[in-house]
Write a structure and sequence with these properties.
three-stranded antiparallel β-sheet; 2 helices; elongated; 23 strands; about 270 residues
């Protein structure tokens, strides 16, 4: 086997995955709450060509000769930096200022997390449930679905900076309904399992979710009604990364071409 062929081929595969990751970032540049992803690489095993030894003249050769066997993707990590806020015409749009996540109940009954606060009121039994645009119910600080009376008007609902839901009383003054939108944090949000629709699920790497209301020592997140958090994708950076990845892919293909030409010349020596 020719090492250079397999080494360069591993580089092409790794750079193709890198381009796929960058393409996904660019495709989600307008996705609410999306967090940019970065492909990380690691080198493969090294093969000993010559070990350290002592020559016939008793000269020490302490440095061995080793050659690498290529590269592979080690991880695709999400960067959870704050995205920019932008106005929304939805009265039930919320942006998180901080490290928290909204929690929603999936169709399977499990709890999932998101930074996308574009919510609506959906019919649920005799009331209205605060839900995502996909129909997943938003959970309060106690982990229960937020269900309001069907008499409430969405445009009159207000939410304080700490997530307390209010509705005007007879005097048109906001009055707390005793319900707070839940926010959760993770020790390692990059370890969350990524799902579709900007959802995440907890994993062993992310650690257990920590309720901001009941967990001491957490810096609580703020909430801004009438705003949504845009993606944190930097288009210029991603385009530069795309060019670098394409050039790296091209270099690896040139290495394969060079190896092929060397083998062709070696085969012609016997003629």
């Amino acid at each position: 086997m020719v090492r250079s062929l397999w080494t360069a081929a591993s580089g092409m595969i790794a750079q193709q995955n890198n381009v796929d990751t960058i393409s996904n970032n660019l495709a989600n540049v307008n996705t609410t709450g999306y967090k940019t992803e970065v492909a990380e690489f690691k080198s493969l095993l090294y093969q000993d060509i010559k070990s350290k030894s002592t020559s016939a003249n008793s000269e020490q050769k302490p440095i061995p000769a080793q050659v690498g066997l290529g590269v592979r993707n080690s991880a695709i990590t999400s960067i959870f930096s704050q995205g920019n806020f932008y106005d929304s015409t939805n009265d039930l749009a919320f942006a998180i200022d901080g490290d928290g996540f909204f929690s929603v109940m999936g169709q399977d009954g499990n709890q999932y997390y998101t930074r996308n606060g574009n919510f609506v009121l959906a019919t649920y039994g005799d009331g209205l449930a605060l839900s995502t645009t996909d129909g997943l119910r938003v959970l309060d600080s106690k982990g229960q679905p937020i269900v309001l009376s069907s008499e409430y008007v969405a445009s009159k609902i207000t939410v304080t900076g700490d997530g307390e839901i209010c509705y005007p009383d007879a005097s048109n003054n906001p009055k707390s309904l005793g319900i707070r939108i839940g926010l959760w944090q993770f020790n390692n949000p990059s370890g969350l399992n990524k799902m579709d629709s900007s959802l995440y699920s907890e994993s062993a790497a992310s650690g257990a979710p920590m309720n901001e209301e009941t967990t001491n020592g957490l810096v609580k997140s703020g909430m801004r009604q009438g705003y949504l958090e845009g993606s944190n994708v930097q288009v210029v950076d991603e385009m530069v990364n795309m060019i670098v990845a394409q050039r790296a892919y091209e270099l690896n293909s040139k290495a394969i071409q060079a190896s092929d030409e060397m083998m062709s010349q070696a085969n012609q020596l016997r003629r």
